[in-house]
Amino acid sequence: MKKQAPYFEQVYEITRAIPYGRVSTYGAIADYLALGSARMVGWALRNALLWQDDIPAHRVVNRNGELTGRMHFDTPETMQALLESEGTRVENNQVVLFREKFWHPEALDHA
DNA sequence: GACCTGACGCCCC
DNA sequence: AGGGGCGCCAGGT
Question: How far is the CA of A26 from the C1' of B3 (A)?
């Protein structure tokens, strides 16, 4: 098992903090870290799937609430299945009531 | 140390 | 509504 790059670990930490039943976005995470870019968050999460199994990577979607990363799971339906198993409904490849489910990492500062 | 690659986001037709 | 261009920037070669 290879040692993870520091940047990846920071992304993992934020992702683990996403509450059950909520979702966040690539942009929000990149924003909060003030490091890297939205694009790199996705890259890091792909790594997370390969190396870690304790990261709720399915809770990260793009800014429209779309499951753009679903093809990186075991099967293209896995991401949606995981979300629905925790009460997050998905229709037409998009999180239903995305705006209400959205969680921004800055909530960590408040807490 | 240059070059390539990305689970994005934004702007422009 | 849909498609293309480009900035983004850490890590792996």
Answer: 26
